[in-house]
Amino acid sequence: MIRFILSKLLYLVPTLLGITLVAFGFIRLLPGDPVLLMAGERGVSPERYAQIAAQLGYDKPVWQQYLGYLGDLLQGDLGNSLVTKRPVLDEFLALFPATVELGLVAILIAAFVGVPVGVIAAIKRGSWFDQISMTGALIGFSMPIFWWGLLLIILFSGILGWTPVSGRISLMYYFPPVTGFMLIDSLLSGQDGAFASAVSHLILPSIVLDTIPLAVIARQTRSAMLEVMGEDYVRTARAKGLPPARVIGVHALRNAMIPVITTIGLQIGVLMAGAILTETIFSWPGIGKWMIDSISRRDYPVVQSGLLLIAGIVMIVNLIVDLTYGLINPRIRHQ
Amino acid sequence: MTDSNLTTSDAAIRRQLLREFWFYFSQNRGAVLGLAVFVLLVLTAVFASLLAPHDPTQQYRDALLVPPVWAEGGRAEFLLGTDAVGRDMLSRLIHGSQYSLFIGIVVVAIALTGGVVIGLIAGFYGGWVDSVIMRVMDVILAFPSLLLALVLVAVLGPGLTNAMIAIAIVYQPHFARLARAAVMGEKAREYVAAARVAGASNLRLMFRTILPNCLAPLIVQATLSFSSAVLDSAALGFLGMGAQPPTPEWGTMLAEAREFILRAWWVVTFPGLAILTSVLAINLMGDGLRDALDPKLKRS
């Protein structure tokens, strides 16, 4: 197992370096002078220009600049935002919990709804449940989620007035962040109604964000179950006279879960892309909205480091999924 | 003599294969429905200027935010109503189909060609060439697709062409991986060895001998990418980084409609419905294609 983990880790190194190269190259590919872009200044005097260039290390050859950049990264220095002047890493860490909270709720809903739906659809193959749920899954899979979000706002916030339109909690409540997760912080604050407010703000964004993962998980579970249910060991278990619940729950489901877990893990990248749209629609103060705002404000240091951090996180999550996969499926480990 | 015999039998085989393909494809009712909707979409795009009752950019100053004809206050000349500056929704939607199809075709063409060439080279030569190429593909895949496309658009500048290039770059690794895997599976087969012994060059081996045998998964991936391209380009348009106003691109229309969502439901509902319908139709077709072309991938 240790060898398996080490080989996976080693495999990550070139990709990680590649990601830093992309982030490093991004600033240099932008139209315009990288020195001025990174300094966020225009029409500076030649002396000031030379000063900025030296400060940012842009007066050195490119390979030295890259090594310097890697050195800064290793020390946790990701540069400062041009707009807020704060370190990019601090901003990221302050906003990241909001995205994690939204993403976690979304993926949990997707898994806890998608897996049972897929299992039932597979067991009752061809039934009305199967047909309706799989049609629903295909629609969900094809959904432009930015439009779906707007429709939900029209219905639930506009017409019915049940849910708030934007933000993480009502402005009536204020408490200092402890964990950064609004659901937990609102409970800790002990203020009446704070938790309910946080939940009501979370409902629509998490429904929107989980639409595509839910559809993918339901479809994947169904096809994995159908495949497994045709296997010899399931037939044997049935022939032995085991109760159907045990055959499905233990023999079939456990094996069908292997590809499904990979699918769930792969949804993290989908969730990050979805978070950009969902957070924009619901003004959710997370990483996705931060990236969009930074791109439109030309806050390039933020875009550069945000790109790096998000790709890094996606990679780490994929690594964890890979390892889990090895853990539950010994065949992979020994390959 | 033998030659002409060979060609007729080749044509017969092709016809037989096509018939077989259609048999499996038409078994899937959803796929046939998807195909029908898709054909309708293509016809709408081709005959857009004939079908559209108004010019898609013409602003009727006396008809701002007119509701659809069946709603209270609707007017017969604007079947689906008008937007905030008095442009006919139906005409804009009809013209928008051109953009969606065009985007899908261009993105898939670039991503498919690039990805297949890269994947073929990686799979065929193996060794360090393969390692370098596939690591580069891994790097592209590490970024969430929409984010990478957004950043690429920031580099290239907002606009439809750049959005298409960005999306194509992001999709390329999927094709490269598929092509590589298929080539690696086929490379060791006897017919390839036979062609090599017969003196076929590497280029010929890659493109004429091996590639046609790896097409099935690539075609399925192409349909999937087509629908994703329609979605992603609409998303970029929605975020203001794709097609720019007043282009009647569906995502851009939604972006313009955002501030009116609580006042005029039709300006939001119809463009989204158009996106959903087209993407759904293409995905339905993709499911059918997968079943018909590649029994191994069949989801039963």
TrEMBL record, chain A:
Gene3D superfamilies xrefs: MetI-like
Location of the ABC transmembrane type-1 domain: 96-321
Transmembrane parts of this sequence: 9-30, 102-123, 135-162, 194-217, 264-287, 307-328
This protein's record includes keyword Transmembrane helix: yes
Top-level taxon in the UniProt lineage: Bacteria
Coiled-coil ranges from the UniProt annotation: none
Keyword Protein transport among UniProt keywords: no
Name of a matching Pfam family: BPD_transp_1
Primary location recorded for the protein, binned into one broad class: membrane
Keywords: Cell membrane, Membrane, Transmembrane, Transmembrane helix, Transport
Topology term for the membrane: Multi-pass membrane protein
Molecular functions (GO terms): dipeptide transmembrane transporter activity
Subcellular location: Cell membrane
GO cellular component labels: plasma membrane
Sequence similarity: Belongs to the binding-protein-dependent transport system permease family.
Name of this protein: Dipeptide transport system permease protein
UniProtKB/TrEMBL annotation, chain B:
Membrane topology summary: Multi-pass membrane protein
Domain called ABC transmembrane type-1: residue spans: 97-286
PROSITE patterns per UniProt: ABC_TM1
Keyword Metal-binding attached: no
Gene Ontology terms, MF aspect: dipeptide transmembrane transporter activity
Pfam families registered for this protein in UniProt: BPD_transp_1, OppC_N
Single Gene Ontology BP annotation: protein transport
Classification via SUPFAM superfamilies: MetI-like (SSF161098)
Subcellular location: Cell membrane
Transmembrane segments: 31-52, 99-126, 146-171, 260-282
Protein origin, superkingdom: Bacteria
Record carries keyword Signal: no
GO cellular component: plasma membrane
Keywords: Cell membrane, Membrane, Peptide transport, Protein transport, Transmembrane, Transmembrane helix, Transport
InterPro entries: BP-dependent_transpt_permease (IPR050366), MetI-like (IPR000515), MetI-like_sf (IPR035906), OppC_N (IPR025966)
Family to which the UniProt record says this protein belongs: Belongs to the binding-protein-dependent transport system permease family.
Protein name: Dipeptide transport system permease protein
